[in-house]
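Friendly challenge for the regulars: who can give me the structure tokens for this chain first? No prize, just bragging rights.
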Amino acid sequence: MANALLILLFPLYLSIPMQASAPTFRLGSTSYVYPGDLVHNAARLAGQVQDIELVLYVTPSGEHNLPTPREVRELARIAADAGMSYTVHLPRDLRSDGGDSLTLARQVIELCAPLSPYAYVMHVDGEGVGADAWRDQALVALAQVADWAGDPQRIALENLESYDPRHLLPFFAALPIARTLDIGHLWKAGMDPLSLIDEWRAEARVMHIHGVRGALGAREDHGTLAWVARAALAAVLARLDGWDGVLTLEVFEDDFFSSRAAFDEALAAV
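First reply, four minutes later:
Bragging rights claimed.
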């Protein structure tokens, strides 16, 4: 009797849609999705994402979006209530032999310390890339920023599309810092990200992803993931199975919502 019942019920079981397992990584957005400042965006995005990348800037003329201490306290409250974290993108590419990148880096780290950021994301300036002098000054800059951050694992050095990511390997060998793998930058440079995901994922605290379109050498990036072929996007997400860092949809304004739709569709395919 029991076996007969199982035979009758088995086709019904097969017809029940299976819910895809949740990704092991945490999904993030930038701090500029809704019209308004950092606090307004954090309040609106809470519950939609698990991390917000605070995209900070300081222009040569002095215009900036650095939060005030009061805004930092409000950002901390929003994150605590929502169980959310922040990644903080430093406003200048780092260089120790000139410019104000280190001064600004220290200012931002001290300002954002109450947020206990999951990571400080940064680039090293690419002028002179590959030369001994370039490596020496960049290593000084990274060591200094890691010291200010208090924990070198909170320093997440990001690849750029303008030079080969292998130029960053000496820094990872010399310092116990983490990595930010920007998948969109690899697409923009015409590189297949899958092998680099495999190589970097163990040390990657953060990954960025954004759409790219146009001919190689003149590609537009930081656009919607709707520009990306679903198979390519699904292949990336499949490579992230078991990874537990932050994946940031590094797009802005309405591109976030179309990117989220493309992301969900690709994730369902995985």
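The first helix runs from residue 2 to 15. The chain has one domain: 21-269. Your move, everyone else.
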